[in-house]
């Protein structure tokens, strides 16, 4: 149940407090090897079984303002997976905090579990070495006030392949009628600008508009 007087929106003082912690070096990245104990698996299962499970599109109407700071997000860079809680920073106090985050793979096994400190010295984010043969990864987060939230499933192979294809088909610099990425063949006639001059007047138009103006 939502507790009165609690909000996920940071106060004016909290960002300054966290900034001081960062500059002092008291907040460090939480890198954890992807080893999970039996207790971790049990803790994740109990939270999912005992508490309502919400997502980016499924949550109580009164929680609409809580979604930006509760939906976990997973991304992968190389062999390291990063998990963050929400697009907005979640508060971390004894009264209101993200208690833990975990990740399940394509077999529904818990491959990562992290409990967070609530004394203001740790942000609700972590990174871990990606296990081999990871096909689909779904992040979860438990807020002591707003239940358990599941984030969108991340597909490492698909994401990596898509990024490689985009990089391979994205040519640097400006495009012209003869220089453009693979797959843009049919776009040149409607994207290349055309400049015409009549006396002292110049007319600049997109090719398709120019063609329409000069059709016989």
TrEMBL record:
InterPro entries named among the record's database cross-references: Desulfoferrodoxin_Fe-bd_dom, Desulfoferrodoxin_Fe-bd_dom_sf
One GO molecular-function entry: oxidoreductase activity
Record-annotated Desulfoferrodoxin ferrous iron-binding domain positions: 67-150
Entry keyword annotation includes Signal: yes
Alphabetized UniProt keyword annotations: Signal
Keyword Signal part of the UniProt annotation: yes
Gene3D superfamilies assigned: SOR catalytic domain
Signal peptide (residue range): 1-34
Protein name in UniProt: Desulfoferrodoxin ferrous iron-binding domain-containing protein
């Amino acid at each position: 149940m939502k507790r009165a007087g609690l909000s996920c929106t940071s106060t004016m003082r909290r960002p300054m407090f966290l900034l001081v912690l960062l500059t002092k070096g008291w907040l460090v990245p939480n890198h954890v090897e992807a080893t999970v104990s039996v207790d971790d698996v049990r803790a994740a299962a109990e939270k999912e079984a005992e508490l309502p499970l919400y997502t980016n599109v499924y949550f109580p109407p009164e929680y609409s303002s809580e979604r930006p700071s509760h939906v976990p997000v997973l991304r992968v860079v190389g062999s390291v997976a990063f998990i963050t809680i929400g697009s907005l920073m979640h508060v971390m106090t004894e009264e209101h905090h993200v208690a833990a985050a975990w990740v399940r793979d394509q077999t529904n096994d818990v491959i990562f579990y992290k409990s967070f400190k609530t004394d203001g010295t740790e942000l609700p984010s972590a990174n871990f070495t990606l296990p081999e043969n990871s096909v689909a990864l779904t992040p979860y987060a438990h807020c002591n006030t707003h239940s358990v939230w599941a984030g969108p499933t991340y597909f490492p192979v698909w994401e990596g392949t898509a990024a490689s294809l985009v990089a391979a088909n994205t040519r640097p610099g400006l495009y012209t009628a003869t220089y453009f990425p693979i797959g843009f063949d049919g776009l040149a006639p409607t994207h290349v600008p055309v400049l015409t001059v009549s006396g002292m007047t110049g007319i600049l138009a997109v090719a398709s508009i120019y063609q329409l103006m000069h059709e016989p």
